[in-house]
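Sample A.
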Amino acid sequence: MPDLSIIIVNYKTPQLILDCLESVYTYTQNIHFEVLIVDNQSDDNSQAIIQASFPEVRWFQMGYNSGFARANNLGIREAKGRTILLLNSDTLLVDNVLANCVQVLDTQPDVAAVSAIQLQANRQVRPNLYTTFGQMRRAFYILPGGEASERFLNRLMPDPHYSDPNQVEWLSGAFLMTRPSVVAKAGLLDESFFMYGEDVEWGYRLGKQGRLLLLRDQKFVHLEYGSSEDNQQHVVTHINRFKSQVQVSQLLWVRKQYGIGAYLVLMLHYLLMIPVVFIWKIAVNLRDRRRPWADLDNQWAYTKQVEIFFRFFQKTLFNRPGFYKV
């Protein structure tokens, strides 16, 4: 039995996976591991390219673009290792982090899952990564910047405090190691999620099985957005901080974990913000002696985002199983 099964989801990223696996084989020592790649109908020569360099890789075809949760669940079902790792294709190892993480799970049975600190491509620690549910939920509200808003949201959605500085509420699915025995109790990833949010919801269930540790002395590089086609096209502003698919998934998570009330409050907030953002911009235009309707692209983009959220309203409200893909 392998010590570790590494599960990587592929969607048209053969070069990223080649680089990722090169780093895995270069730095991983003292453990026996297998690599499983689950392909989301890339419709290219990814398999031939990757297995030409790494023939021992076990390859699985989903047959359609199933997203993150369903593809990883197939990998988990097929894994033979006594520990399993969900690893993004756009990651690189920089040391023997895998063996170190396996050792933590082997020596601390009360730990349900572990991850490592994310580095950017320049090897600097990636800033502003969420580790609590409260941090995630507070970011969903579009309020004026400043300490007053921050204090209000912190009181409304406080963060937990742990004696262990490594303990967190959830771990990123870009690098998440656990045991099959934990998954058997917590359940697989929720397959209603297409992409994003599924690791947050899973973290809630994994956390019921034991502590979740973000190991501060372990690191890996996360390039991010390896297969995202719209990363460079999305202009982030204060009111348009969300990508549609990301937020549809996050709203589904809020509904599943916190119930109908929390979900309805968020949706009402987004709806009521539509006239607010228009009135605010018109007032700014009048103050600056410009035409009232000038430069409203940002406001119309926000309105379009909210319209997309409401396409999934009925399904999300009643928590219906499905495929929440934008």
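Sample B.
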Amino acid sequence: MAVRPAGAVPSERHWEAFDQLATMVAVVRPDGQCLFVNSVLESVIGLSRRTLTSRSLLEWCREPAQLLEALQALAANQFSTRRFESALRRAVVGATEPLPVHFIVSQIDHSHERLLVEMIEIEQQTRQDREERVAGQSQVTRELIRNLAHEIKNPLGGIRGAAQLLALELPSPELGEYTQVIIHEADRLQALVDRLLAPHRKPHIVSDVNIHEVCERVRSLVLAEHPRGLQVLRDYDASIPEFRGDREQLIQAVLNIVHNACQALAEQIDNGDARIVLRTRVSRQVTIGKQRFRLALELHIQDNGPGVPESLRDRIFYPLVSGREGGSGLGLTLAQTFVQQHQGTIECDSEPGRTVFKIVIPLP
């Protein structure tokens, strides 16, 4: 195997693995001159790799002196790593404000002529931490609920069977009404248990899914339930490609969110002032968890209702949490689970007069 001589400058191919990272990366000289930038940094700054490698990274740092001091300290072998927070200027259209980032400057080799600069969006880091925390909490909660549901399921069958046998032995038909109540309530609890266990079914991913067909199915179902007083508006991006998924799970996820919106809009539906918007968009260079995706689908489900109560906003995806009298609190839990099984995320932004549930799913 050929050994690259010490001090030899590696080709761009040597650093192509950095394109697989979800964070911005640049390989620079101690004076800040770029030798390589990965595709994420290209996208964030808004210039091509060829352009960026002909210039200095210092041009794009809001505090260039701080970055230069870190680069020179590492080149002089005073440190092996330096971290600090600053911001990146961007050339992308519409980006007027610098992007707050966390800089990590590291040595690559013993020559110290090439240094690695990794830049992590502070907002992205916060979002990743939140997603990991939510995913962990959801997993623990689902396991608890699943175990509890299994413990409930077996006694329920015994209660229902005993009530049926008792009904056959009762001398008076009037007394049979009580056994029918027991059977009915046992069936209702059985249905609740089945819904608690439903998220553990694996997605049936055998075909391509058109997100607009999913939205249209949900729209037709909801308008059939509310023929008057409710508008369900479309705002679709026709360029969104199909993707592999479980069509029925996605219909159920979107339907659960829209049903929740309809319940929040009940008074406005009666007044003829209820509106739900189904909006689809393509998002580029999206990070979900710690994985970077070139393209992702964004589905926004927006309503003009009173908003999610502040006391529930951090808990609305937890099982059995409901803001409605008599609600099971399972609709959003199921929606979150089905979206997560498609490698996606779901989040809610709510204020009085505007609530938006955003579903993000990676595209091929």
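B remarks: Residues 1-10 have pLDDT under 50 and may be disordered. The first strand starts at residue 24 and ends at 28.
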